[in-house]
Amino acid sequence: MKQNLLVATHNRGKVVEYSEMLAALDVQWRSLDDIGFALEVEETGDSFQANAILKSQAYAAETGLLTLADDSGLEVDALARGPGIYTARYGGPGLTPQQRYEYLLANLQDVPWPLRSARFRCVIALAGEDGALLGTAEGVCEGMIAQEARGAGGFGYDPVFYLPDRGQTMAQLAPYEKHAISHRGRALQAVEPLLRKVLEGGSMSGNA
Predict the structure, then answer these.
(1) What is the domain-level CATH number for residue 95?
(2) Of residues 38, 47, 49, the one with CA closest to residue 8
(3) Is 204 part of any domain?
(4) Structure pTM?
(5) What is the DSSP string of the chain?
(6) Which residues fall within 8 angstroms of residue 53, CB to CB, at 6 or more apart?
(7) What's residue 124's pLDDT?
(8) For residue 97, what are the domain limits?
(9) Is 71 among the residues known to form the active site?
(10) How many domains does the chain have?
(11) Within a domain: 17
């Protein structure tokens, strides 16, 4: 019987991404909705790592399941590395993803191309069934903020996140290309050895 692995999110698309990127793992991927768990853990940390740890430990302790949680966002150098941990709320409540990236473009309209550097950052935390932190891993994807949206793939800020080495935005990449270079993909690659060790019954702690 496969072990349940909870991804601490209500976003089914994120769970699909996880399962695709770690397809070799013999686990039953579960979202919070899959297990009928409605509790929302407030992200009160002051960093991506703090929020990821907080969520992984809280959901693991409440559900008794091995739990992966991530916190991620966009850091724009011209905005003093904002919106950062506030990425999902950038521009105010109730906005669509398109409205949020349009708000970003409006705030950068007078910023010249060389100063539009940015990065997606993701920290993943793994907590055991008892809520104990087992480790964390980080992934970063460097790029630029485009001057206009391009591409229909991905989600969030992908249409305006330009990858100079590929000449495309994140939203123009095929899913397998995005998985290989995205901040979440890199964080998952980094956490995979720790996850395998835990699933095999070993014990390990610290950063993956």
Answers:
(1) 3.90.950.10
(2) 38
(3) no
(4) 0.91
(5) -PEEEEES-S-HHHHHHHHHHTTTS-EEEEETTTTT---------SSHHHHHHHHHHHHHHHH-SEEEEEEEEEEEGGGTTEEGGGGGGTT-TT--HHHHHHHHHHHTTTS-GGG-EEEEEEEEEEE-TTS-EEEEEEEEEEEEE-SS---SSSSTTGGGEEETTTTEEGGGS-HHHHHHHSHHHHHHHHHHHHHHHHHTT----S--
(6) 45, 69, 125, 127, 133, 136
(7) 98
(8) 3-199
(9) yes
(10) 1
(11) yes
CA distance 171 to 173: 6
Percent of the chain with pLDDT over 90: 81
- Dig out the tokens for 121 from the structure: 């950052």
Residue 60 lies in a domain: yes
Q: Which of 33, 34, 71, 158 is catalytic?
A: 71
List, in order, residues 6 or more apart from 170 with CB less than 8 Å away: 120, 141, 143, 151, 153, 154, 157, 158, 159, 161, 163, 178, 182
Residue 208 in any domain: the answer is no
